[in-house]
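Shipment paperwork, digital attachment
Item: protein structure file
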Amino acid sequence: MENNTSSIIKVDLAAFVEPENKGIINQANSIYKWGENDAYPNYLISLCKRSVKHNAILNGKVKYVVGKGIEVVGTIDVENNISTIDTWSELANKIVRDYEVFNAFAVEVKLNAVGGFGSINHIRVANLRFDKDGGIWFSDDWTDRKIKPTKLERYNKITKQGVFYYKEYNIENNVYPTPSYNGAINYIETDASIASFRVNNIKNGFSAGTIVNFANGVPTQEEQDKVNRKFKSKFSGEKNAGEIILTFSNGIDKAPQVISVTPNNFDKLFTDLDKACSENLFIGHSITSPMIMGVRVEGQLGGRAEIVEAHELFQLQYVDTRQKAVEEIFNYLLEPYNTKINIVPIGTINERLSEAALVSILTKNELRKIAGYEPIAETQPAQMCSHDDIIFSKLKASGSDEYKILKYGFAVDSSEQAEYFEHKIKQQNFSTIPELDLKVLQYLRENKQASIKEISEVLKAPLQDVADSVDALIKGKFIDGQIGTEINVTTKGADELVDVPMLEIETRYTYAVRPDVAPAKVSRDFCKQLMALSASGRTWSRQEIDSITNEQGTSAWKYRGGWYHNPNIDANTPYCRHEWRQVIVTKK
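Attachment content:
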């Protein structure tokens, strides 16, 4: 053994480096990685698990933004069909949680078998990435390079389907969203580290709080281990948190020497750090007062008036904006189906408003709702616009009765949409259902007992996609029976498989009642006359309807019967209860 009088060892302590939130282009596939190793979303998720304060605040914010729930008003049977996976409440909670954790959310809109509204499903933001061309990709785990990502269709306003991705603007102009609490991430890490330190301090007892130096000689290794075990047995553990370091040396003073390496105010330092961490966490999360999250703050009385004001300020400055963003996105997606949603706030405090004030600012039906009465139905009388007769006379003078309708296709509200669906129908051999659904339908016609797995293998299509197609065909009444046992193609399904030479088929348009509305008690003369022409077999080409649009300066596609006030959603729409519907025809 060397006889050194002293020995100094330099210990480098690890420094925390916050992961960078930036899009890094992957040269192999042109998809932007989300942070180093494509793991930044996983890091944000880990913060929720490691910091109890951060997670509690996020839970509180989700409850605030979701509020008392979703009010859905309109014509879609949203209770059953809004999502194939979740209820409205579950869908709202998933979307808002993504919104609060990542500052973004995504949904996938699907059409049904006949081109109408199908469903809106949540997609985890953490599973989505973008490529340099704006394409959107999905993977179950982006850190696992063995998993091949799948490209998804982005939402298209014309087709009204695909993945809609919403993110808040960030000043870095990053490809990916920046969390709203971005400035508080260091404090979230600190909170997590404090908890980790404390549990390790108690469970492992490995913080160098005290050094006991025995200066009466250096015993053998076996004797050192024996002394070490006795000290740990007596002075460490859950009730005696902290670690004791034992040293042995040859010294003049033979008595053991106890040296504290912990600051005298160690407990105060931790208390101050914990307090500063909490304060900055609430600031970073835009919380006006911790009391609205159920956290008592020292020095604040927490009276009702103070809590009310804090609640109203947080609702105004933060929650209203977040709720509005969610409402606007869903109302944009649901607008074609004459449906809208409203998020009911978590609670409005109006005790301080007098009855006279309430009467002056609320409508009759709003007052009836507060009083517990049913709303009074409002009707909108049918009206004629000045140019109704002009547009109708143009339509009456055009069109043709010389076509036989083979099948009805998609509802359209613009020339661009009509042209898109015409092209789509040609690609699918004039079928009005999606290409994969058509292939599944064709296979089931010849193989009535085929299983989903068999169809997937034969068509070389993903198992889940085939399952979705079968489900859509059953819901659309194109097939009936039990998959894997026996499936029968219905008359409606057989119409999709009708074998007519392509040269003899055309796509034209007829005027029809929208399937998502109740029958009207009163219709405008314009609509009644146009419906009568359609009932007699009159159809129009896209070019004929376009020419009327151009000449009048008002879109005949969108205008249709004119403005309509829907009392169910208390909103005006620039179109009526009718629609232009694509029809597949052949000459009589």
